[in-house]
Design a protein that fits this description.
Helices cover 21% and strands 25% of the residues. With 67 residues, the chain is α+β, with helices and mostly antiparallel strands.
């Protein structure tokens, strides 16, 4: 394996083979350790959903119940 890091696009789950095409779109914290960087293809960077849909659904219900 070469010394180049391989990244996976968060939007399409495809490998990012060109390092110039890799865009860091977020950093997710880990439970233990430094966490990891979220990558996407340059053309998919705007398509990345950073909020987990299940978490959003649960939090919406909690927020609605408090009102």
């Amino acid at each position: 394996m070469s010394g180049t890091a391989v990244h996976v696009c968060r939007a399409c789950d495809g490998l990012i083979t060109d390092p110039a095409d890799a865009v860091a779109v977020a950093h997710e914290l880990g439970n233990s350790g430094p966490g990891w960087t979220v990558w996407a293809h340059r053309e998919h960077a705007d398509d990345v959903e950073l909020i987990d849909p299940d978490l959003l659904r649960i939090m919406t219900r909690i927020w609605a119940a408090r009102m």
